[in-house]
Amino acid sequence: MFRLSIPAALPATALAIMMPAVFPLRAQASPGKDKTPPAILRWAEGQPGCTFSRDDDGKYRYALWAAEYGVILAVDSQELEKVHRRVEPFFSLQLTVRYRGKGTLAVSPGLATLEFVKHFKVTQTSLDPEGFAQKAQNDADELEQQTQREIEKHPERKEEREQYVEAYQKDMIGFLDFLTKHTLRGVELDAGNPEASGWVLFSTKSKWIGEWKKPEEFVLRIPLGDRVLEFPFAVPAQQGDLILRKRN
After folding, report:
1. Most CB atoms within 10 A, among 25, 63, 155, 194?
2. pTM of the model
3. Dist CA 185 CA 159 (whole Å)
4. Right CATH for 39-126+183-235 from 3.30.160, 2.50.20, 2.60.40, 1.10.10
C-alpha cells in the first residue's frame, strides 16, 4: 500500500517591516453577557499603521502594525484559480507576525477564521496541518484501493489507471511537504524569537460556498494578545486587477 512519510515542520523565512502604530477599536459588549469581548484591530486603507501593496511575486500584501507587533497578510492574486487545482482543495493565506515588545506574544493560527462574505458570510476555522495531512494520506490510500479494484474488473485500463495514480502520488508528496514545512504553527514570540511566518489554510467545502464570484470578498480574523485582528480583503483586489509576476 502506498504510504507517504510526513517530515517534521521546519521554520519559515522571516519578513520584517517597520510601520506606525495602529489604535484599536473597542468592540461593544453584547447585552446579557458579563464577559467583555476583546478589542478589535481592523485593517483599513489609509489608516495609520495600515499599508497595502501589489508585489511582483503575484501577491497582495496587507500590513497592520500596533505598538508591540505587526502582522503582514499575503494573498496570492490567483488564489481563486488555484483552489480547485490542488490535490486537496483549500484557500491559503500567508501570515508573518513580528514581535517587538519586551515580554511574550502567543501566536495561535489554529484560532484563525475566514469569513466568505459573498457566500452567506459563512465562516471557516483554519485547518489543522497534521489533521489535514492525515486526511490526505487516507484519501491517497482509498484511491489506491479503488484503482486496484477497478484494474481487476477492467485489466485493459491497467496502464492508464496506474499512470493516473503515479501522478496523484507525486502531487500528494509535494502537498504533504508543503503542509509540514510551510504552514504556520502555534508559537510564542519574544525578544530572542521575534518572528513567525507561514501559511494558514481554510476549507472551501461547504454547502453555502458556491461558485467563485469576482471579486470575492473575505475577512480574516486572528486573535493576537488581547485583541482580535481583522483583515478585510478581496481577490482580485479590484475588478480586472492583474499583477505582472517577476520571473525567477
Report:
1. 63
2. 0.80
3. 41
4. 2.60.40
